[in-house]
Amino acid sequence: MKPENTSVIKVTGVTKKFKVYYDKGSSLKERVLFQSRRRHEVHWVLKGIGMEVKKGEAVGLIGKNGCGKSTTLKMLARILYPTQGTITMHGRVSSLIELGAGFHPDLSGRENIFTNASIFGLNHAEITRRMDAIIRFSELEEFIDNPVRTYSSGMYMRLAFAVAINVDADILLIDEILAVGDVGFQEKCFEKLKEIKAKGTTIVIVSHVMGQIEKICDRAIWIEDGQVRKEGKPREVAGEYLREMEKMRHDRIEAEFQNSRLALACAKGQEQKKNELPAFCSSGARREGNQKIVFTDAVMEREDGQPAVFFPVCARMRIRMKYHAKEIGVPINFTVNIARDDGVYCYGTTALSGKNGVRKILSQPDGEVSMVIEYNPLLHGRYLVDIGIQDMQERKYDYLSNAMEFRVEESGFGEIGLVHMQGYWEIGKNQRERQ
To answer: 22: pLDDT confidence band, cut at 50, 70 and 90?
Structure first.
C-alpha cells in the first residue's frame, strides 16, 4: 500500500502540439488532387508543463480559455497523448471530461450504466451490485429506462457523475461538468466529492468558478500560455488570477473606449441624420426627441479631466456634454439618469433642480454643460447613463437612453450592495474602525 505522501500523478516536461489546417481535403481524392490544401500551422498548447499530485489531494486547474487546462486533463485521462514528456499515473482513473461521453443515445439510462461502468473496469456482477446506488444518487428513477437521447443536459450530468463516483476510482478527473445541473444537485455533488476525497481519492478538477476550486481543492495550479504560472493555496492563486483577468478586461474596455473617442473625432463635421446615434454612444443606446437641439458629444471624466470608463468608489466624476442648437436663445433643461446594468435605478437629476444655483439656461448655437458628482457612492458594478435635453414643458429635444456606460471598481472594503455608506464600527468604548 502506498504511503499517503506518495505522488499518484506525476507530469514531467509535457508538451502538446496540434496541427491546424487552413483547408484540409475531406476525401482521399481531394487530398491527392489538391495537395496545396494541406497547408497548416503548428499550435503548441502545452510548452513543458510539470506537476505532482499526492494521494488523496484535490487540485484545481485554472486559467483562461485556450491555456491548456482541458488538454492537460485529457492527457491525464489518456484521451490524448503528449508530444514530449512523461505522465505517470498510479491507480484506477475515472473521468468526467465531456458531458455524456461514452453514452449511447439509443440505449436506456440503465443500459448506459452497464456500458459506462465497464469502461472504468467494473465487471457485470460489480455493476449489478452498485446499480441501485447509482440510480438513487442520480435521482433519475422515473427516467432510468428511457433512451438517454431524451435526457436534458442536466440529466446527462447526473447520470455521468453518479457512475463516475461509484466505480471506486483512485483518481477522479473532472472538467467543468459541475457547471451543469440545478443548485441542489450541485451541492450534493460537492458533498460527495468531499466524502470520496476523505476516503483517499485523488481529485483533479478544471473549473472557471473560483468558488468551486476554493471549496473542494487543497491546491490550485494556474496555467497560462501552456505553462504553470503559479501554484499554491486556492484562495491566493485564484485571487491573483482574478485580479489579472480584471486588469486585462479593464485594459480591453479602455482600449475600446479610446477607439470610440477616435471614431467620434473622425465623425465630427458630418451631418447627422434624424434618429441616427452619435458616435460617442454605446452600442445599446436609443434616441428620442424632435432633435431641434442635439447632443454632439458626451464623456465621463476623472478628477484630472481625462476621459475614463473605470472609476473608484468615492471618486469625483464629471459628465461633460456638448450640444448643437437650431433654435437659439430658448429656455432648455438638461437631465442625467443613472441605472445599474440589471435595471436598478440609482439616481436622476436635472440642471434646474434648484440645488446648484442655476436658474435659467438659454440655448446657444454650440454649447457645453457638465454634471459633476463630487462623491461617487456607487459600489462595484456596471452602470448606464441616460442624458437628455428638454424644454420647460419637459418636451424632449434629444434624449439618449444608455448613452454611456461606466464601471465602478472594487472598493477593497469588503462591501456589498448598491452604495458605500460613510460610517464606522465601534469596538468597545473608544476603538473605531472607519469604513
So the answer is: low
From residue 97, give the alpha-carbon distance in Å to each of 101, 218, 235, 307, 336: 8, 21, 24, 46, 50
- Give the CA distances from residue 255 to residues 19, 244, 248, 252, in Å, rounded to whole numbers and listed in that order: 32, 17, 11, 5
Question: 3-state SS of 350-377?
Answer: ECCCCCCCCCCCECCCEEEEEEEECCCC
Which pLDDT band, with edges at 50, 70 and 90, does 214 fall under? Answer: confident
Q: What is the DSSP letter of 178?
A: G
Q: State the Rg of the chain over Cα.
A: 30
Tell the residue number behind the cell numbers 451543469, with chain if given.
Answer: 180
Among 131, 139, 138, 187, smallest CA distance to 159 is for 138
Provide DSSP, 324-335: EESS-S-B-EEE
- Residues 319 and 403 sit within 8 Å (Cβ to Cβ): no
pLDDT per residue over 261-293, tens digit each?
665 556 555 555 556 788 888 878 899 999 999
Please name the amino acid found at residue 274. Answer: K
Cβ atoms of 40 and 111 within 8 Å: the answer is no
Q: Give CA angle at 175 (197, 65), nearest 5°.
A: 135
Q: Order of strands across the sheet with 58-62?
A: 93-96, 171-175, 202-206, 58-62, 219-224, 227-232
Model confidence over 186-195: pLDDT tens digits? 788 888 888 8
